[in-house]
Amino acid sequence: MVAGESSGDLLASRLLAGLRPHLPHADIHGIGGSRMAEYGFRSDWPMEKLSVRGLFEVLAHYREIKGIQNDLRDQLIKERPAAFIGVDAPDFNFGLEAQLRGAGIPTMHFISPSIWAWRGGRIKKIARAVSHMLVVFPFEEEIYRKAGIPVTYVGYPLAEVIPMAPDVAAARAELNLPANAPVISILPGSRLSEIKYNTVAFIEAARILHRRDPSIRFVVPMAGDRQQNYFRSLVTSAGLGEVPLQIIAGKSHAAIAAADAVLVASGTATLEVALFKKPMVIGYKMMRASWEVMRHMGYQPWVGLPNILAREFLVPELLQDAATPQALADALGKQLEDAGLRQRLQQRFVEMHHSLLRDSARESAQAVLRLIGFSERAHEA
User: Fold this and answer.
1) Which of the four pLDDT bands, split at 50, 70 and 90, describes residue 285?
2) 192-212 vs 325-337: helix crossing angle, rounded to 10
3) CB contact at 8 A, 366 and 108
4) Percent of the chain clearing pLDDT 90 (strictly above)
5) C-alpha distances in angstroms, 372 versus 80, 85, 365?
6) For labeling, which of 24, 56, 224, 256 is most exposed (least CB within 10 Å)?
7) Torsion angles phi and psi, residue 175, rounded to 5
8) CB-CB neighbours of 239 under 10 Å
9) Alpha-carbon span 169 to 136, nearest angstrom
């Protein structure tokens, strides 16, 4: 298995939760994180090596990433595993999957790239690379069936993990936050490249809001020590050290649950925020050259998953030049102050949560077992 970032690590852990009881002694290894390790997964390389986003940012790390891909390919072709499962990280995994499948190793990919949003031509590459696709949104199943790619809709794993009615008081107690103060959680991204481009604008927005209302508490969960140290250095070098930030290791779900509103980088985390029924502002910045290329490649007007699923701008998206500190602060201020808006968003997010619920651990595990031809009865015999 290969997962390339913290969101993939979490999603893969749900699959492993369903798979491990059937394969208690299987050697499951590759690239992954701490949540996968809880189910006996062994990571051969640090997951952070793959946590790079953006066309030109990837190019800067291309040689190292390609070297890891080639080494893993050679290792797996020699080992002949029962299956390879790529979890997200499409640019890394599809190339690897194509080579492994060509060598006769069954390949599965968990979580479709957003071919319905941009770069739809990738489905031809996927057809060559993937023996079976696991998808997490209902509308994706038909896309793959039409392309002749075996597919299983497994539901969105975090829809089972995140409660329909999050316990705000418990989350605040866990993070030592006051029960009644306004709380904004800030999620600039888990990749170092995301932290690099989003941090200053996000924290300058926090400074503006703090000057308006000094009672606001700001919580910033960080995926790991490298991310936290880098984030702190950016805040300090930008002269933002006076902004009262509570930086925490991990605990992103507690940070979201505790919040009255969330400032979040575009990506999987936006859907997590929606599942916690929280008002949010989606912001995102990237290298200028990457932005100029990618902004012309979209098929639809939304980039945030909640907006894509709703087919409308439920929550604001402020991207690149639009993601100014003032614009981010104003949008967050509206989310905090407009009670009617907060109530409407909560209802829409409840409906979205119900639509994504399924026993994803069981469904994804059963798909893997079918792929490898595993029979519980034969295994017991």
Assistant:
1) confident
2) 60
3) no
4) 73
5) 12, 11, 11
6) 24
7) -100, 10
8) 11
9) 30
**What is the mean predicted confidence (pLDDT) over 64-70?**
93
Q: Check residue 292 and give its pLDDT.
A: 65
Q: How many CB atoms lie within 10 A of CB 37?
A: 14
Compute the average pLDDT of residues 295-300: 58
pLDDT for 321: 87
Cα–Cα distance between 8 and 30 in angstroms, integer?
Answer: 13
Q: To the nearest whole percent, how much of the chain has pLDDT over 70?
A: 92
- 3 state SS of 42: strand
For residue 6 the two structure tokens come to 């913290």
With vertex at residue 348, the alpha carbon angle to CA 346 and CA 352, rounded to the nearest 5 degrees, is 115
Number of Cβ within 10 Å of residue 145's Cβ equals: 12
Residue 175 contacts residue 364 (beta carbons within 8 Å): no
CA distance linking residue 291 with residue 97, whole number of Å? 28
CB atoms within 10 A of CB 197: 26
Residue 133, strand partner residues: 109, 151
- Which residues have a Cβ under 8 Å from the Cβ of 167 and sit 6 or more positions away? 257
Give which of 279, 287, 252 is closest to 268, Cα–Cα: 252
For 230-273, how does the pLDDT look when each residue is reduced to its tens digit (9 = 90+)? 999 999 999 999 999 999 998 999 999 999 999 999 888 999 99
Range list of β-strands (E), the chain? 2-3, 29-32, 42-46, 84-87, 107-110, 132-135, 151-153, 183-187, 217-222, 245-249, 261-265, 280-284, 317-319
* pLDDT of res. 117: 58
Q: Is 81 left (phi over 0), alpha (psi -120 to 50) or beta?
A: beta
- In degrees, rounded to 5, the angle at the alpha carbon of residue 314 between the alpha carbons of residues 138 and 253 is 75
What is the greatest pairwise CA distance in the chain?
A: 69
**Cβ neighbours of 9 (radius 10 Å):** 24
Q: Is 31 helix (H, G, I), strand (E, B) or coil?
A: strand
Residue 254 to residue 169: CA distance in whole angstroms: 10
267 φ, ψ to 5°?
150, -165
Distance from C-alpha of 343 to C-alpha of 338, rounded to nearest angstrom: 9
